Prior knowledge:
single chain; alpha/beta; Alpha/beta knot; Trp Operon Repressor, Chain A; 2 domains; five-stranded parallel β-sheet; 8 helices; 20% strand
Amino acid sequence: xxxxxxxxxxxxxxxxxxxxxxxxxxxxxxxxxxxxxxxxxxxxxxxxxxxxxxxxxxxxxxxxxxxxxxxxxxxxxxxxxxxxxxxxxxxxxxxxxxxxxxxxxxxxxxxxxxxxxxxxxxxxxxxxxxxxxxxxxxxxxxxxxxxxxxxxxxxxxxxxxxxxxxxxxxxxxxxxxxxxxxxxxxxxxxxxxxxxxxxxxxxxxxxxxxxxxxxxx
Length: 217
């Protein structure tokens, strides 16, 4: 999978993409990412990429640098690919939708990280294939939202997770009927006078599977 990210702050990704599952996916060449600093596509001497929204009091990202960045990527790879815009007011991401997107995005796509209040609606109308919200709240930097979205997608890539069962049987997975996962325990058997449920120590696979089904939340 390869993701092209258009952002004002590419440096904000460094720490997260240098650790854990994402870093292992990059090292093993299962995941690749290219950053495009939006300011580099500004025609202004100041490299500014925002302006005041008409009749409003806030700043939004201007259409010209965004359009220039998107077309630069299309020309660079010799084809058009899907474009995603992270925003708080559109389609709410769920695990089921994410699995569908994983199949539709064809292993290469663009993410636009908004900033300030919005981006010019004409960019959405002309270029954007999916508007995605990670939840119903507002954050200042949509770089954060894109990291959440990317993490969710990358762990679906075959061989990214060491244990395939981890992906098949987890909260909101198809196998669990999109429900939250059952409780889990590890050693010690007794912790602060609270014991692990006896059934999980029985070795009876059928009864353990029944317990798991009955304890989905």
